[in-house]
Amino acid sequence: MNAKQSLLASALAAIGASACCVLPLVLLMLGIGGAWVAQLTKLEPYRPIFVLITLLFLVLAWRKLYRTPIACDADKPCANDQVIARQRALFWITILPLSALLVFPWFAPYFY
Predict the structure, then answer these.
(1) What is the C-alpha separation between 23 and 84, in angstroms, rounded?
(2) CB count, 10 Å around CB of 17?
(3) Hey, CA dihedral for 91, 97, 101, 106, is it positive or negative?
(4) What's the pTM value of the predicted model, to 2 decimals?
């Protein structure tokens, strides 16, 4: 699994982890409501699993970007320092919204 796939997987897991709190709020902000929105809280018991999956994929992406030695031919993009720097910047830019999604359930009661 490369770094890009790890980041995508961690983003999807973070969305799953915060679906119990973020999704109902987003739907209410869009004017979509009803009794069925309350059913989205049934994902809450699975939140710790999604959080662990998110953190696992983030660690895998970090390890791939910073710890794994880059072994590739000189003419490949992975040998270019600009590409590596861009991937690392994208990793840290991705961490910010993922962190917000992961901690949102603790702050969600202040928005309802």
Answers:
(1) 34
(2) 26
(3) positive
(4) 0.64
Give the C-alpha separation, 43 to 41, whole Å. Answer: 5
d(CA 91, CA 57) in angstroms, rounded, equals: 11
Residue 49, pLDDT above cutoff 80: yes
Instruction: Report d(CA 47, CA 57) in Å as an integer.
Output: 15
Q: State the average pLDDT for the chain.
A: 77
**88 vs 62: CA distance, rounded Å:** 8
Higher pLDDT, 90 or 32: 90
As given in the structure block, the two tokens for residue 21 are 């709190």
Length of the chain in terms of residues written: 112
